Amino acid sequence: MYDWITDHKIPVGRWIAAFITFLTDNFEWLFDAISLVLSVLINGTTAGLLWVPPIILMAIITVAAYLLHRSIWLAVFIFLGLLFIANLGYWERTLETLSLVIWATVVSVLIGVPIGIAAAHRPWLYQAMRPVLDLMQTLPTFVYLIPTLVLFGLGVVPGLISTVVFAVPAPIRLTHLGVSSVPTQLVEAGKAFGATNRQLLYKVELPYALPMIMAGVTQCIMLSLSMVVIASLVGADGLGVPVLRALNTVNVAMGFEAGIAIVILAIVLDRVFKRPETRRKGG
């Protein structure tokens, strides 16, 4: 009865496949260059972290967390959490995951914050982007994992790109929200003192929106961590690899140990980047 609908199928999939083929045929050199640069950055960061003895790196992270938060309990928790990860045998995998999360967050912030600022100053731009942002966050990650794999090949880079696609809407939305919520009185006061648009941005809007921007960074970190297992499907190293192996071999012990390591890393990063903001509000 409804065959006439399927007989006139809109070839969306073929259009997208043709577009991906066009990109690989004409811009393969660009994607190879991007893949090389990102691979060097991520692998270099991992090598640098692995070069430092584990106990010393744990101590450095713990001291840095204490200096940021002045909380001895948080410092003790971070040190014991990292020590527990090393005891489980996942220290190297954890540093690989940390490198991926760091660069995914950096790329997402470098892309998301400027776009969020532009969208805050141009409401029509945000209205145009909103469906795209919704699509990026609701589309199953396996769907855009396929074109990134075709464009960038097997390895950590397609995992990074897929993570960025999934995480970048957070800084865009929260930067837009922070900048657009700047009180009109502050902007008008800046203009009254003769501030240019650039001065208004750097001296009024961004300082006011900074807590919201930092919330976007924290969200970006958490979203990147949630992509660890997905990224391992295309060759990205890290804690997602033992989780994937445990799933394939029904190894309950390995799965739970790797999962606990991911949870500890997520809690550590969340406390380090989120707590200062809460404390300033409380003060």
Task: Describe the overall structure.
This protein is mainly alpha-helical. It is built from 15 helices and no strands. 33% of the residues are buried.
Element-level helix/strand string: HHHHHHHHHHHHHHH
Helix content: over 70%
- Category by helix and strand content: mainly alpha
Approximate strand percentage: under 5%
Distance between the termini: 67 Å
Rg, Cα atoms, Å: 22 Å
Can you give the mean pLDDT? 84
Number of DSSP E strands: 0
* Biggest beta sheet attributes: none
Low-confidence stretches: 277-283
Per DSSP, the total helix count is 15
Q: Given the C-alpha coordinates, what overall shape results?
A: globular
Topology:
Blueprint: H1 3-6, H2 12-26, H3 28-51, H4 54-69, H5 72-88, H6 91-121, H7 123-138, H8 141-152, H9 156-167, H10 169-180, H11 184-192, H12 197-226, H13 228-232, H14 240-249, H15 252-282
